[in-house]
Prior knowledge:
Layout: H1 2-36, H2 38-49, E1 59-61, E2 72-78, E3 84-90, H3 98-110, E4 114-118, E5 121-125, E6 129-130, E7 135-139, E8 143-147, E9 160-161, E10 167-173, E11 176-180, E12 185-188, E13 191-197, E14 203-205, H4 267-274, H5 283-292, E15 313-316, E16 319-324, E17 327-329, E18 336-339, E19 342-347, E20 350-353, E21 367-372, E22 375-378, E23 383-385, E24 398-404, E25 407-408, E26 413-418, E27 425-435, E28 447-452, E29 460-471, E30 501-506, E31 522-533, E32 536-537, E33 543-544, E34 548-553, E35 572-578, E36 592-595, E37 597-598, E38 600-607, E39 610-616
Parallel strand pairs: 1-4, 4-7, 5-8, 6-12, 7-13, 8-14, 12-15, 13-16, 14-17, 15-18, 16-19, 17-20, 19-21, 20-22, 21-24, 22-25, 23-26, 24-27, 25-27, 26-28, 27-29, 28-30, 29-31, 30-34, 31-35, 34-36, 35-37, 35-38
Antiparallel strand pairs: 2-3, 9-10, 10-11, 32-33, 38-39
Amino acid sequence: MSTTINQQRRTMMKAVSASGLAAIGAANGAQAAIAEDPWARAKEIATRLSQPLRFREQDFVITDFGAAPCALTKVKAWVSHDDQAMVDTQAPGAKDCYPAIKAAIAACHQAGGGRVVIPAGNWYVAGPIVLLSNVHVHLKKGAHVYFSNDPRDYAKYGDVDCGANGKLVITRWQSNDCLNFASMIYAYGQDNIALTGEDWTSVLNGQGGVPFAGSTDCWWTWKGKNRTINPVSQANTPGDAPGKINQRIANPANPTSLRDVAPHLTEAERQLIQGEGDKWRADEQYLPALSEAGVPLAKRVFGLGHYLRPSMVHLIGCTNVLLQGYHVIHTPFWQHHPVHCRNLVFRNVHAESHGPNSDGFDPEACDMVLVEGCTFDAGDDCIAIKAGKNRDTQYGPSQNIVIQDCIMHSGHGAVTLGSEMAGGIQNVYAQNLVFENTHWATNPLNTAIRLKTNMNRGGYLRNFYVRNVKIPNGVQTSPSFYASLPGSPIASKTVATAAGAVVTFDCDYTPTADTVRLRPPVVDNIQISNVTVGNVKTKQGALASCYQAIVILGPVASDYNGPQPMPAVVPVTNVKISDCDFGTPANREQPWYLYNVKGLQLTRVKVAGKEISTTLSA
Length: 618
């Protein structure tokens, strides 16, 4: 198994090494350009990435390889955290098009490239669509792909045979490396690849809320209990019940001690990583524990018997990538998760899934990314830029990312950085956006511009620029909280970092979830301008745009639990907010909250109709 993994890693590194070395040489010049005119640098990135990919002009139609459309039937399924509805799914006995699509992609790749065409119709696919170099997979108008909702179908075809856990693939789950279920769309170490749709009737359906056969559980059940304090919506997990095993409950398949998989640890190291009790044995805690313990990828085996849901579209170590023009719905987990990719365009995609952790687009440790013309309607963050977690930072930072001309509806954050950002995030440009917040009365956008990190995730955020954002229906007008650690100067249930502010920088994000807290984050050089926020009528009848305009919770030094001397814990610095109208906060008495912030500059900022120009520190 280890030999297979090493070969795949070499393939990936070969695909990205040349561009990565070139980027190092350009970095110093880019920093100078950013300092002079960041938006000129954003235009340069967008212009460069707008050059079209080229493919051989030959079509490989999946029906020529044995694919056949399927009949549909109705089933009662979850369509969000809280709601059920009758939805279409494949009828019993539907033909599995996985072999035909695999054969079409293989033939296209072997011919030197071209286009694999999925025609109009309903298609059932019981396994991953694995993209290969120089292959363009295209969905015609009216093509609707129903991916199997049976986890076993994503543990059949992987390159790594893990016995009872299935045949798995190299993947990342919440920014930690592991062997796990394949994603519905997957690629590893490929170059010049595209996934496109003719229009938004070209649908990729992950069936995340459709019950497993003979069960009331679905992919989303594996999330477990929601831990947000005082949520307005998304308070439930579909099919969850007390005692039902999920990613947040100790899994008996995991060892009772890290000694079994990491005998090299000292007793003090083991106790720090495991923490108190056995919650570290829950799959969502066990994987980060393996990273902290330095356990190699070959021993981080999940898949069958575990509860880590796969992302819908997951690309690792790929170069020259186009994702464009389709509609993705009902995804088991994150909707799109490219990792360590370079030259990536995400254009005109309708990313819609209201299930748990249904982030719309999560580029991780990627370099040169353009997101434009997309619409997001998500069960979690619309866009969340990632960069590794714990000790899995080998791919470096996320950087040189342009987000423009997009619409965001529901979600936790519209444009978010983190929370997994241990490798750092820099040079991000977001402009000309509409955070529509269409579902403001029932499922509001929690916050608009969001940073999430803590003493575990650490990392840095620098050179983040935002301008020209319209938020006509505000954000959530009541506060939602996360719990603080014992002994923290920040009392639990007092700071609205989870929801309620237009701008939220949370450097103490869910600290109770991480047992190892020894990496202070650094946040510097943030510029936000021309943000306009409208008011809506609250349940109490008042007009409000948010709960608070700005919440900046800097790093909390008391959270640190590593060796002494403690590294420097520095405040959030060089944040400039100008020419913004934040509407009328519900909390007029305290329109902002600041902790460990130095020199926040407000210039011509309106709050409740009053213009403010001042510099604040706390």
